[in-house]
Amino acid sequence: MNQHPKLAIIGFGTMGQAICAGLVEASGYPAQQIQAADCHPAHAKVRAEALGIGLSKDAEAAVKAAEVVLLCVKPKDLKDLLAGLTAAGALDHKPLVVSIAAGTTLAFLDAHTPEGTPLVRAMPNTPCSIRKGMTVLAPGKGVSEAQLATARALFEPLGRVMDLDEKHMDAVTGLSASGPAFVFVILESLAEGGVQCGLPRAVAVELAAQMTLGAASMVLETGRHPAALKDEVTTPAGCTIAGLLALEDGRIRSVVARGIERATQVAAGLG
Ligand SMILES: NC(=O)c1ccc[n+]([C@@H]2O[C@H](COP(=O)([O-])OP(=O)(O)OC[C@H]3O[C@@H](n4cnc5c(N)ncnc54)[C@H](OP(=O)(O)O)[C@@H]3O)[C@@H](O)[C@H]2O)c1
To answer: Which residues does the UniProt record annotate as the domain Pyrroline-5-carboxylate reductase catalytic N-terminal (predicted)?
Structure first.
């Protein structure tokens, strides 16, 4: 398959647009190689035009012409979508089908596509739109190394990519796909703390965001445990340990961890 296979993005909402923007704007994927389809194309017309990609209502035509099909509809819409595509023979040429639907298993996808359709389950996140994404891939049974490499090549320009066994996909969804929303709330809270202590809001938001970026980058770039990095900031009898103890009084660790657990449980029931 060539470096930029003909790609159909089915469902051009939040994630379809985020992935498409990352591909076209940030990684130079040729816009003329991408055709999107959405139930209500008028909603995303301006975005599609800005990216230079084709967008219509016709998912069948987009899939028939594609070498790779990226399914970006909600889990509840997948069954009808796949039934329609299968009935129309749109998958008969066996394109590589990559689904990003939360909670939707490879077994479900297999049962609702023509026999032998190569399937990959992917879980990206919204930071893919600015090439800071995290995507986890789980290949279906019949997927070759070359096909998995094609799926990987689609997401690699958008951030980090990891292959994992499918059994981890719901936890991945709860942590790295829902996670940006949790971090935005935490960032907002950090900024509120700054505002409470007299910082102008815009300054507080910038400090909170750059600090979070720096701290996360230290974990990724040094490979060191977050606890060791935390200890280095924590001078005996200093201000950081005082702040940490206040956070522990509010049970910050279990509150955040339970949030991931809850999101994982709900993700598992979405398919
Ligand atoms: N949002 C995230 O951060 C995130 C992260 C990782 C994975 N995901 C997964 O990504 C998928 C999409 O999520 P999203 O947040 O992007 O949802 P979204 O914004 O609702 O986008 C889905 C789009 O698909 C359209 N659609 C529905 N059925 C269709 C069909 N048969 N043919 C063509 N288009 C169709 C919808 O149109 P209507 O609105 O008119 O129905 C909507 O515009 C979900 O399965 C979700 O689990 C989301």
So the answer is: 6-103
Among protein residues, the one whose CA lies closest to atom 33 of ligand 1: 38
Q: Domain check: are 134 and 204 in the same one?
A: no
Q: What is the pLDDT of residue 250?
A: 97
Among 99, 133, 165, the domain boundary falls at: 165
Residue 36 lies in a domain: yes
> What per-residue confidence (pLDDT) applies to 28?
87
Residues with CB under 6 A from ligand 1: 10-16, 37-40, 59, 72-75, 77, 81, 100-102, 123-126, 177
**Domain match, 41 and 128 both:** yes
Residues 11-63 have pLDDT tens digits of: 999 999 999 998 998 778 999 999 999 999 998 999 999 999 999 999 999 99
Output the DSSP codes for the chain: --SS--EEEE--SHHHHHHHHIIIIIT---GGGEEEE-SSHHHHHHHHHHHT-EEES-HHHHHHT-SEEEE-S-HHHHHHHHHHHHHTTTTTT--EEEE--TT--HHHHHHTS-TT--EEEEE--GGGGGT-EEEEEEE-TT--HHHHHHHHHHHGGGEEEEE--GGGHHHHIIIIITHHHHHHHHHHHHHHHHHHTT--HHHHHHHHHHHHHHHHHHHHHH---HHHHHHHH--TTSHHHHHHHHHHHTTHHHHHHHHHHHHHHHHHT--
Provide the residue range defining the domain that includes 151. Answer: 7-165
* 252 part of a folded domain: yes
Domain boundary among 165, 188, 205: 165
Is 170 a domain residue? no
Whether 144 and 195 map to the same domain: the answer is no
